[in-house]
Amino acid sequence: MAKMGARRRKPKNLVDGRVREPNKYTEELVLKTEVYIKEREENNTKIPTICGLALFLDINQDTIYVWRNDADKKNFSEAIRKLLSVQEEMLLQKGLSNDFNANITKLALHNHGYTDKQEIQTTEKPYENVSDEELARQRKLLQDEINEEEA
User: Which letter does DSSP use for residue 128 in this model?
Assistant: First the structure.
């Protein structure tokens, strides 16, 4: 029991004001990640996810994202890229064959950069070759129409 007035020690694993779990990274985790992906591929009914991997490895999901971007953990980063590729492929194939719910598939594919909006670019400039006089004439005609409707 702490004495009254005693200062509390700062946890050793405090990073950015948040307590982080001790570094559990080993190359064995890379192998376990590959096992997790392979089991999902062979099962062909479950999609590999970062959340599922975190549960499988018994680590925090945030830790996976940190390790994925760590230059010293290239093998782990590559395993995560493979997980995301397998996930994307399964979503596409199962979505197209209606094995997965279309709305959930659409939502999940959004994380892979897919979108359902159309982007239309026009290169045609309709008034590029119209003279200033013609534009003024058309503007006057439109203004006259508006004035007649208001009257």
Answer: T
Residue 54: is its pLDDT beyond 90? yes
108: which residues sit within 8 A by CB, 6+ positions away?
47, 87, 91
Helix (H) or strand (E) holding 19, with range, is: strand 18-19
Handedness of CA 36, 41, 45, 51 (dihedral sign): positive
The C-alpha angle with vertex 35 and arms to 74 and 63, in degrees rounded to 5, equals 45
- Per residue in 94-137, pLDDT (tens digit) is 889 998 888 888 888 888 888 877 777 777 776 677 788 888 89
Q: Could you tell me the pTM of the whole model? A: 0.62
In whole angstroms, give the CA distance from residue 56 to residue 32: 8
Segment (H or E) for 90: helix 74-96
